[in-house]
């Protein structure tokens, strides 16, 4: 069910949606948010994260208690926006190697509670 902003209407629409995740060091969170917004993202859920490479798995227990060093930004967006959002973040943050950031997307269904502007439908 999609809520239409500015009205009391909620409808079921047959629209493909995806989740785009952008995981970046905390200090680059604002840059990533701006890049995604400029590419069409309209809302975000921000989660604290802490990544580790396979070489760090030997001391896995101690890493469980490490403080978060990254932000996991999750954008629910129309599938047609996915490529633009990912390209914008990768380009503007110059994410090219290990430890600099990560992006991925996957399709989602059965969305409830999402609010869209009438122009976005």
Tell me what you see in this structure.
This protein is an alpha+beta fold and 121 residues long. It has one domain (16-53, 62-116): 2-Layer Sandwich (Alpha-Beta Plaits), CATH 3.30.70. The chain has helices spanning 29-38, 60-64, 82-92; strands at residues 2-4, 10-11, 17-25, 45-49, 70-78, 102-108, 114-116. The strands form two sheets. Strands 4-5-3-6 form a four-stranded antiparallel β-sheet, with helices on one face. A three-stranded mixed β-sheet has the order 2-1-7, with no helix packed on it. A hairpin with a 5-residue loop joins strand 1 (2-4) and strand 2 (10-11). It is elongated, with a radius of gyration of 17 Å. It starts with a strand and ends in a 5-residue tail after the last strand.
């Amino acid at each position: 069910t999609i809520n239409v902003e500015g009205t009391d209407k909620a409808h079921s629409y047959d629209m493909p949606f995806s989740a785009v995740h952008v995981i970046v060091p905390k200090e680059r969170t604002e840059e990533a948010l701006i890049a995604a917004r400029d590419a069409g993202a309209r809302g975000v859920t921000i989660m604290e994260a802490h990544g580790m490479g396979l070489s760090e798995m030997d001391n896995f227990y101690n890493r469980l208690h490490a403080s978060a060093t990254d932000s996991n930004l999750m954008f629910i967006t129309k599938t047609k926006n996915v490529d633009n959002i990912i390209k914008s973040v990768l380009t503007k943050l110059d994410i090219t190697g290990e430890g600099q950031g990560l992006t991925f997307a996957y399709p989602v269904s059965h969305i409830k509670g999402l609010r869209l502007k009438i122009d976005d439908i």
